[in-house]
Specification:
The complex is a heterodimer of chains A (about 325) and B (about 300). Chain A has about 325 residues and is mainly alpha-helical. Chain A has a domain at about 100-320: MetI-like (MetI-like fold), CATH 1.10.3720.10. Chain A has 13 helices and no strands. In chain A, helix 5 crosses helix 8 (about 185-200), helix 7 (about 155-170) crosses helix 11 and helix 9 (about 200-215) runs antiparallel to helix 11. Chain B has about 300 residues and is an all-alpha fold. Chain B has two domains: about 25-90 and about 245-295, no CATH class; about 95-245, no CATH class. Chain B is elongated, with a radius of gyration of 23 Å. The chains are: A mainly alpha (about 325), B mainly alpha (about 300). At the A-B interface, helix 1, helix 6, helix 7, helix 9 and helix 11 of A face helix 4, helix 5, helix 7, helix 9 and helix 10 of B.
Chain lengths: ~325, ~300
């Protein structure tokens, strides 16, 4: 019995896994094509680190006599990626992979923290209005959500910096790592809160959660639960809360990462976004390609996790076809 | 046949009563504010294009730095070089208006095409379109734009092509959903039975008669996105360069003075961004609720 129940879920998950792999392959093709079309010869720079020495590389080039065809370039680049070789930065000369790991963690703190902030604001509002229905507070809250979503996040960052300078006497532009004295949590907290409020996803998250919760609250099984005195929350949790939450979080990861590019710039946060900005300025191809791959990988892993939760909570999902994982 | 024609008019929900008579007051207010903003943007675009401005936006006045609004004939004050903020705000619309329209056209045309193909052909085409949508959605927009900037050059038209392409998935899935819904309706079935060619049904009966509101709404929201991207990029220093103004680089240029307590030169463009993006969002959501019967927030 156990095995029969598990098999369709395993099948569904392996399908998701294959799909994620296919999408990441597509991502690498897109990144490659953009760089391949670029003027200059970015790929000769990129592949430099892969051959053992300068002489060997020159020898290979000489022996071939011609530049490698595009597919060979792609395959050798992809092979390098799979072995963790992202090339070396043209600016610093350091291997990109190590740098990515270092800045990736900083961005991870920032994005996870700000996601938490967004949810801490959005979930109570959504819960309140879906459980209580329309109240007098609905309209102002809606308006506020609209306003916050249209607010330019860099200006919000300035306001936060100004307040922290003049109210707390802390200058939060010194990056978190280099700040040894003073309350370091403030350096981290400020950008996280600014990104959490100003990433432009707040009103959409509130709307989506409210719609889904309101839809579930009038379902028959909730009425039954209510009638027999069982916990409504326990029954509504999976369909009304867990699934919409994971769906909207997975759908909004790209937006939060995009917002991180700006917030990291405002607050001088040593993360992926700032590195991407620097790389775009210097036309540092290996770095920007690595960041694009890593960011896309995060997005795909996020949506893979969402599917895992979805299939685990709803075994029927393994039988139906794949739903497009997009929250509209 | 007559029966089908009657059903068609019923199912097409075409009544003589104008839609705004039944609309919610709040939605009308949203749309009204949105239209006001659109008018302002259009008027300012024309003013900027013909250089009908109160002051030369690049004229430097050293005797009047960071002047507050209303001082010495400068309605919105001056920035850190004594340049008139109002004129600079108006000229900034040049930075995003045309590029934004291009982005909108790209995402609407490609999105409608892919959405229609997915919903009407189904099968392999649908799988491919879904794959394409998921692929485009994998990239954070700004990261993809930075990649293109690094590869080519920080040109606003390149950037807006990227914005257009990244707007395709939303448009495609909305159009596909709408078509799947419409295909079950009697009047489409009737059109097929009557022997109308598929391209006529798709272009006229489905897209023209029933998807125009949806596309107008998407275009409105798309303009909001384009403004957001343009201002963010010129804030980051990749868009329009000084001394040519853009709302983003105006906020950035006023930053140092902001921390010293001179808020206005940075806040004026920020408020312009806020009210404009808000206008396009509210217009889109208000229209969505009135025309498509979907409650926004």
């Amino acid at each position: 019995m156990k095995l029969a129940a598990i098999r369709p879920i395993t099948l569904a998950l392996s399908r998701e896994l294959v799909l994620t792999a296919l999408l990441l392959l597509g991502v690498s093709v897109v990144v490659f094509v953009i760089l391949y079309l670029a003027p200059g010869d970015p790929f000769s720079v990129l592949l430099e680190g892969q051959t053992p020495s300068h002489e060997a590389r020159a020898g290979i080039r000489e022996a071939l006599g011609v530049p490698k065809p595009w597919y060979a370039q792609y395959l050798s680049w992809l092979g390098g990626l799979l072995r963790g070789n992202f090339g070396t930065s043209m600016r610093t000369g350091l291997p990109v992979f190590g740098e990515l790991v270092r800045v990736g963690f900083h961005t991870l703190y920032l994005t996870l923290g700000s996601m938490l902030v967004t949810l801490l604001i959005a979930v109570p509002i959504a819960l309140r209005s879906s459980v209580r229905g329309a109240t007098g507070l609905n309209w102002p809250l809606t308006m506020l959500a609209y306003l916050v979503s249209a607010l330019p996040v860099f200006w919000l960052g300035y306001v936060a910096i100004y307040i922290s300078i003049h109210q707390f006497g802390v200058f939060p532009l010194i990056s978190r790592v280099s700040a040894s004295a003073g309350p370091t949590w403030l350096y981290a907290l400020l950008p996280i809160c600014v990104l959490g409020i100003g990433n432009g996803t707040l009103s959409e998250i509130v709307r989506y959660l409210r719609e889904e919760m309101s839809r579930v609250m009038v379902e028959d099984y909730i009425r039954t639960a209510r009638a027999k005195g069982a916990s409504v929350w326990r029954h509504a949790f999976k369909e009304g809360f867990l699934i919409p939450m994971t769906e909207i979080i997975a759908a909004k990861i790209p937006f939060i990462l995009g917002g991180a590019v700006i917030v990291e710039q405002v607050f001088n946060w040593p993360g992926m976004g700032r590195m991407a900005w620097q790389a775009a300025q210097d036309r540092d191809f290996p770095v920007i390609m690595g960041i694009a791959m890593l960011a896309a990988a995060w997005v795909r892993v996020g949506s893979l996790l969402q599917r895992v939760v979805y299939v685990a909570v709803n075994p029927r999902a393994s039988k139906e076809g794949r739903r497009v994982g997009r929250a509209e | 046949m007559k029966h089908y024609v009657q059903v068609a008019s019923e199912a097409g929900e075409s009544s003589d009563r104008p839609v705004w008579k039944d609309a919610d007051t709040l939605d009308l207010a949203y749309v009204g504010y949105g239209l006001l903003i659109v008018t302002l943007v259009l008027v300012s675009y024309v003013l900027g294009a013909f250089k009908w401005l109160p002051y030369d936006p690049e004229y430097i006045r050293v005797d009047l730095l960071n002047a507050p609004p209303g001082s010495a004939g400068h309605l919105l004050g001056t920035d850190f070089l004594g340049r008139d903020i109002l004129s600079r705000l108006i000229v900034s619309i040049q930075a995003y208006f045309l590029p934004g329209l291009i982005a909108i056209v790209i995402s609407l045309v490609l999105g409608t095409g892919l959405g229609t193909a997915a919903a009407y052909r189904g099968g392999k085409v649908e799988v491919l379109v879904t794959y394409f949508n998921n692929l485009v959605d994998s990239f954070p927009r700004l990261v993809l734009i930075l990649l293109v900037i690094a590869a080519f050059k920080p040109d606003i038209y390149y950037i807006m092509v990227v914005v257009g392409v990244t707007g395709v998935p939303v448009c495609a899935s909305l159009v596909a959903g709408k078509i799947r819904f419409l295909r079950q309706k009697n009047f489409i079935e009737a059109a097929h039975v009557l022997g109308l060619p598929t391209h006529v049904i798709v272009l006229k009966h489905i897209l023209w008669h029933h998807c125009t509101p949806l596309l107008v709404i998407q275009a409105t929201l798309g303009m909001g996105e384009a403004i957001l991207i343009e201002t963010s990029l010129s804030y980051l220093g990749f868009g329009v360069q000084e001394p040519t103004p853009s709302w983003g680089n105006m906020v950035q240029a006023g930053a140092n003075y902001f921390f010293q307590g001179k808020f206005w030169p940075s806040t004026a463009p920020a408020l312009a961004i806020l009210s404009t993006i808000l206008g396009f969002h509210l217009l889109g959501d208000g229209l969505n609720s009135i025309l498509e019967g979907k409650r926004g927030t």
